[in-house]
Amino acid sequence: MAAAPTSPTAGKSGLKELVTQAGHPDPRALPGITAASVGLAVFAAFSHRGAPQVFLALGGFALAAAAILWSGFGTARPTELLGLSGCSKRVVTFSFVGVALGLGAGVWHRYALDLSLWPHDIEVFVVVACLIGATEEIVYRGWLLGRARPLGPAAAVLVAALAHTAYKTALFAFPSVAESIDLAQIALATFLGGIVLGALRAASGSLVPPMLAHAVFDFAVYGAVATAPWWVWN
User: Fold this and answer.
1) Cα 12 to Cα 218: distance, rounded to the nearest angstrom
2) What is the pLDDT of residue 179?
């Protein structure tokens, strides 16, 4: 079989593809990813603080929202870029994998804190916790990872994990109560978890498996929590 003709653009780096996708200029991808990541980290750092710091949080949130709206979805359909375009046997299979991984991580987390392996009393706040986790997945493993796909699957997973790690570390960087925080441990756990969740998205082609994994983990961790902890709101 004759070799396929080589495109004159073949061999260009994935970073270049963030600027040019399918021959069409896409100058909004990389700035959008960067601005959204910075905005969300600023929001996380000050969202649980009082005035005037809370206005920095609002500014960070506004920056992230504006960046996502401005950057958009490139040439992809929104549902396809977010990983919400449909269901298949592959998605179902990896959804079970995601549930198992989320359950295992949640049980391990409770064991490490010397808690019962599963919450005995389920409180209403767990619904809020799971919704927050799902929103994080839509932003990081959905929009951000999808927008970074021209870098290649592995690099897109890495970029999303780093951005999520920045957000989560910033969330605990300035506690509003007297509490000892191991930021290095939080950063490492979030980064490794982000790699696993991103790999689920890349392998399944869907956002559903990482969303389920995150939701099951949050259910295990926050199931018995009656009120929102300080890092949610204070």
Assistant:
1) 41
2) 77
Give the alpha-carbon dihedral of 17, 191, 126, 137, to 10 degrees: 10
CB 201 within 8 A of CB 161: no
Between the alpha carbon of residue 164 and those of residues 135, 198, 227, the distances in Å are 12, 11, 24
Hey, is 227 helix, strand or coil? coil
- Per residue in 21-47, pLDDT (tens digit) is 544 557 899 999 999 999 999 999 998
- Counting beta carbons within 10 angstroms of the beta carbon of residue 120, is it exposed (0 to 12), middle (13 to 18) or buried (19 or more)? exposed
Q: Is the per-residue pLDDT at 6 higher than 60?
A: no
Q: Counting every residue, how long is the chain?
A: 234
What pLDDT shows up at residue 5? 45
What mean pLDDT, rounded, does the chain reach? 89
How far apart CA 46 and CA 43 sit, in angstroms, is 6
Are the C-beta atoms of residues 37 and 61 closer than 8 Å to each other?
no
Q: What is the distance between the alpha carbons of residues 66 and 62, in angstroms, rounded to a whole number?
A: 6
Residue 148 makes CB contacts below 8 A (sequence gap 6+) with 18, 29, 33, 155, 156, 159, 160
> HSE on the CB side for 150, CA within 13 Å?
26
Please confirm whether the linkage preceding 52 is cis (ω < 30° from 0).
yes
What's the pTM value of the predicted model, to 2 decimals?
Answer: 0.88
Local structure of residue 119 (DSSP, 8 states): -
